[in-house]
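Title: Comparing notes on inverse folding

I've been comparing how different people in this forum approach sequence design from structure. To keep things fair, I'm posting one structure and asking everyone to reply with a full sequence. Here's the target:
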């Protein structure tokens, strides 16, 4: 499908985005065009989903290419001196590569979908326009298996039944196919959330039967190979927590890989991954341009370190430190590091730590700091550390005293020692050689929560410790009010460029 270049009226802010002209069932175009007025593309960028009225997944049916919040974002950034805000509308349909779906109803009439807004009534969504087509195909295969094998969906009122939820994740990693065909032929990792303590429970036989049915009809040797692997998660809690702590690989490939940001990334079912793989790829490629070659980078809220490792590979970073509080991300980080290009020779480390505790210790010694916090935004202590970065710099410049000598301070605090044990170091440890007086010059903020980002942005620039230099938006969740923001801050106040004098002004002076 070819892109259509659309004119942009002068009354709108200058925003670049990608627009798709129609939602064909299995077409995966990549187009780019200037953003049109709302009315000019409302029909060609409509959701056209039969589940829209009842499903809580999407809140906007028209103008998927430009959520209403985009205009607000453009005005907000303009008030901080950024007049060239861009917005990438990304793929508008069939974009979701990761879906958590509730399973309710009965074995004869299973409902697989999302809760209706404000209720615990599940809406069946077999024709979801946001899902990758192979997720919808696997949902139908699962529905068939539930009926044939008499699997009982979970009953929230009675706490009975077998199958509570299903997590479906698409991998488009397949080097045997041309790059243009990989997305369309993505395979699905199916994780069944089973209502039992473990694989030895009384209903475990049903779990194995369902897994075998899925693999037999959708696995690698089936007529239509849809399924990458089948996993089980065991959960008996009566609260609203979807997953339990126990995971088991049942069938298919154990390792799940995706290629984003120029590297192969390992993703476990239990670890976080972006639902919109292609939009995340677009964001990473844009982000990489703001990191100088050979920089020292700290990646906070790093997860499995995808952003930091992507920078290590593409920007030849001297050092990359990934800091994450969730210990489950460590295994994915280690697997991803093993697949990094051999030319990556910088110092790379992953640390299990809470960034809200002594955050300045992570900031110092880096040229660039990347933050990708949850929807609630940055921790207050981290904002404070970033605000006072200038005073931190002055403090670090004082000559070291004898009491600062590491030989005089043997670390004995058990929580610090445990944290060190949880860390991973790849390549030479440059911490002892790093210039501890080095203060970050660039702050790269990735936000999935627009309201919290606005507050954090105001706080960061309030005392002129930082100024906003660039901002970009990405349509990670078409059909919703949400946008993903990539904001680039530079240390210190904004430097106002002097206007060049016109010929008339020069003549007047003469």
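Reply #1:
Here's my take.
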């Amino acid at each position: 499908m070819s892109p259509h270049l659309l004119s942009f009226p002068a009354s709108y802010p200058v925003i670049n985005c990608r627009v798709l002209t129609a939602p064909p069932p299995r077409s995966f175009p990549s187009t780019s065009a200037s953003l049109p007025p709302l009315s000019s593309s409302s029909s060609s960028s409509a959701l056209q989903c039969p589940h829209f009225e009842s499903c809580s997944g999407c809140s906007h049916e028209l103008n998927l290419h430009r959520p209403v919040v985009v205009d607000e974002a453009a005005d907000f950034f303009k008030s901080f001196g950024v007049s060239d805000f861009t917005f990438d509308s990304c793929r508008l349909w069939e974009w979701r590569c990761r879906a958590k779906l509730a399973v309710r109803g009965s074995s004869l009439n299973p409902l697989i979908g999302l809760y209706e807004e404000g209720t615990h009534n599940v809406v069946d969504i077999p024709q979801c326009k946001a899902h990758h087509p192979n997720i919808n195909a696997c949902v139908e295969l699962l529905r068939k298996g539930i009926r044939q094998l008499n699997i009982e969906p979970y009953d929230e009122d009675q706490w009975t039944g077998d199958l509570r939820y299903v997590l479906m994740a698409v991998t488009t990693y397949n080097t045997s196919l041309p790059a243009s065909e990989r997305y369309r032929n993505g395979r699905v990792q199916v994780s069944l959330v089973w209502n039992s303590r473990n694989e030895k429970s009384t209903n475990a036989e049903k779990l194995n039967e369902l897994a075998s049915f899925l693999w037999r009809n959708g696995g690698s040797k089936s007529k239509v190979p849809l399924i990458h692997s089948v996993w089980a998660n065991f959960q008996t809690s009566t609260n609203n927590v979807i997953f339990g702590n126990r995971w088991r690989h049942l069938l298919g490939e154990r390792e799940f890989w995706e290629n984003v940001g120029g590297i192969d990334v390992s993703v476990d079912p239990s670890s976080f991954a972006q639902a919109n793989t292609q939009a995340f790829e677009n964001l990473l490629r844009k982000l990489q341009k703001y990191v100088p070659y050979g920089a020292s980078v700290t990646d906070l809220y790093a997860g499995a370190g995808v952003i930091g490792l992507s920078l290590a590979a593409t920007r030849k970073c001297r050092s990359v430190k990934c800091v994450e509080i969730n210990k489950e991300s460590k295994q994915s980080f280690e697997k991803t590091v093993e697949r990094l290009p051999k030319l990556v020779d910088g110092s790379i480390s992953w640390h299990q730590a809470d960034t809200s505790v002594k955050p300045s210790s992570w900031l110092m010694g880096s040229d660039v700091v990347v933050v990708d916090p949850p929807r609630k935004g940055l921790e207050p202590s981290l904002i404070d550390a970033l605000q006072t970065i200038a005073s931190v710099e002055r403090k670090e410049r004082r000559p070291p005293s004898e009491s600062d000598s590491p030989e005089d301070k043997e670390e004995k605090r058990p929580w610090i020692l445990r944290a060190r044990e949880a860390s991973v170091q790849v390549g030479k440890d440059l911490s002892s050689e790093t210039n501890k007086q080095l203060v970050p010059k660039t702050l790269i903020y990735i936000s999935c929560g627009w309201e919290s980002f606005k507050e954090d942005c105001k706080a960061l620039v309030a005392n002129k410790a930082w100024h906003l230099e660039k901002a970009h938006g990405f349509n990670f969740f078409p059909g919703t009010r949400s946008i993903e923001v990539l904001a680039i801050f530079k240390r210190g106040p904004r430097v106002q460029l002097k206007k060049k004098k016109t010929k008339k002004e020069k003549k007047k002076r003469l």
